[in-house]
Amino acid sequence: MAFAFHHDKDEYFKQQKDNAAEFIHPFVEQFVKIDSNLKVLEIGCAEGGVLCSFLEKGAKGVGIELLQARLDLANHYLSAQIPTEQFTLINKNIYDINPSQDLPFLFDLVILKDVIEHIPQQEKVLAEMKKLLAPGGKIFFGFPPWQMPFGGHQQICESKILHLLPYFHLLPRFMYTAVLKMFGEKDSTIEELMDIKSTGISLERFERICKENDYKIVNKKLYLINPIYKYKFKLTPRKQFGFISAIPYFRNYFTTSGYYLIEKK
């Protein structure tokens, strides 16, 4: 069975909220003040845990989520803690958003936490996000490099062996599919994992896309041990070793999360 936190939505919401408050907020607050003046957008907000952590500090927020069932849970969790006039939830694909029609305002901060690696046409989405930013607005990304031990998100596998097996997502597609079928994974799980294989992103590719779209990286932190692992696995978060961070491509295999804050040049 896959890890319990993928099924326990109450726990997942709490983990995301606590992780954001303890690790994302300090990273962002070096350049963005989180208070009642902040307007924040989360793309791929899921159950709303990350967004909630900003709303609790007074920010006004919008969450965009493709899956209606997850958005319904977000509304349930947020409404229990946050005044409803403080947030808006939208069930749309980010590529279908018309800022002037769908959004109440432009944003000082846009958040994509564990989302960019699921989005196709990543060059396009970074270009489109410029339309969402207020003057001086910034975008936070947190994502696992594709080549890291579990960058394929194989933790969603039902097989106890596969969801603990590092790096096997790097196999060629036909071999990867064959292994998943051999261990009895459902067709829906295999399809999801194949989609992630198509959209997984490296640190170098992300930085190149930022440069090509005229963004400046204003803050960056690579982790050997992802902060979310504190809540999921009781592991102490650890910043990546400097000598590994300095080696392009190689660093992807040993970096479990990259935090970036970018802005338009």
What are the salient characteristics of this protein?
alpha/beta, 35% helix, 20% strand, 8-stranded mixed sheet, 265 residues
Explain what the structure shows.
- Helix content is 35%, strand content 20%.
- The chain is an alpha/beta fold.
- The chain has an 8-stranded mixed beta sheet with strand order 3-2-1-4-5-8-6-7, sandwiched between helices.
- The longest helix has 20 residues, at 9-28.
- The chain is globular and about 50 Å long.
- It starts with 8 loop residues before the first helix and ends with a strand.
How would you concisely characterize the structure shown here?
The protein has helices spanning 9-28, 49-55, 68-81, 99-102, 122-129, 173-182, 187-199, 203-212, 229-232, 242-245; strands spanning 39-43, 60-64, 87-90, 107-113, 133-143, 215-225, 238-239, 257-264. The protein is α/β, with parallel strands linked by helices and 265 residues long.
Strands, helices and their partners?
Layout: H1 9-28, E1 39-43, H2 49-55, E2 60-64, H3 68-81, E3 87-90, H4 99-102, E4 107-113, H5 122-129, E5 133-143, H6 173-182, H7 187-199, H8 203-212, E6 215-225, H9 229-232, E7 238-239, H10 242-245, E8 257-264
Parallel strand pairs: 1-2, 1-4, 2-3, 4-5
Antiparallel strand pairs: 5-8, 6-7, 6-8
